[in-house]
């Protein structure tokens, strides 16, 4: 089961990276972290998940927490109790 979770995370990371490269191919470089986070929360997240981030928080020390109350991958994972044990590992990897 652990290998399956690792493989799924790798697929999502690859999908997200390819999408980010495709979306920013013709954009100028981001000025700062805030510009990058704005892009992730609006354009990027919308293209992948068909919705914007529900909430963005920061501790003003370089740590950002993006909250998506209906993240499709975790919603599907939580639909069955058989994945309950693996869920914390998936969250940490994501």
Report on this model:
The chain is mostly helical. The protein has a single domain, classed as Muramoyl-pentapeptide Carboxypeptidase, domain 2 (2-Layer Sandwich). Helices cover 57% and strands 9% of the residues. The protein has helices at 2-24, 33-49, 72-78, 87-93, and strands at residues 55-58, 64-67. A two-stranded antiparallel sheet has the order 1-2. The longest helix has 23 residues, at 2-24. The two termini are 17 Å apart.
CATH superfamily: Trafficking protein particle complex subunit 3
Q: Assess the beta-strand content as a share of residues.
A: 5-15%
Computed structural class: mainly alpha
Spatial order of the strands in the main sheet?
A: 1-2
Provide the number of structural domains. Answer: 1
Q: Specify the CATH architecture.
A: 2-Layer Sandwich
Topology pattern, helix = H, strand = E: HHEEHH
Uncertain regions spanning at least 5 consecutive residues: none
What's the CATH class, please?
A: Alpha Beta
Number of H- or I-type helical stretches: 4
* Cα end-to-end separation: 17 Å
CATH fold type: Muramoyl-pentapeptide Carboxypeptidase, domain 2
Major sheet: 2 strands, antiparallel
- Rg is 15 Å
Instruction: Tell the overall outline.
Output: globular
Number of strands: 2
Determine the fraction of residues in helical runs and give it as a percent range.
55-70%
């Amino acid at each position: 089961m652990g290998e399956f979770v690792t493989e799924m995370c790798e697929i999502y990371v690859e999908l997200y990276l390819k999408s980010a490269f495709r979306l920013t191919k013709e954009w100028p470089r981001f000025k700062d972290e805030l510009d990058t986070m704005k892009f992730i929360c609006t354009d990027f997240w919308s293209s992948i998940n068909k919705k914007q981030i529900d909430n963005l928080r920061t501790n003003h020390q370089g740590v950002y927490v993006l909250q998506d109350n209906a993240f499709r991958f975790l919603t599907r994972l939580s639909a069955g109790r058989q994945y309950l044990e693996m869920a914390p590992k998936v969250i940490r990897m994501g």
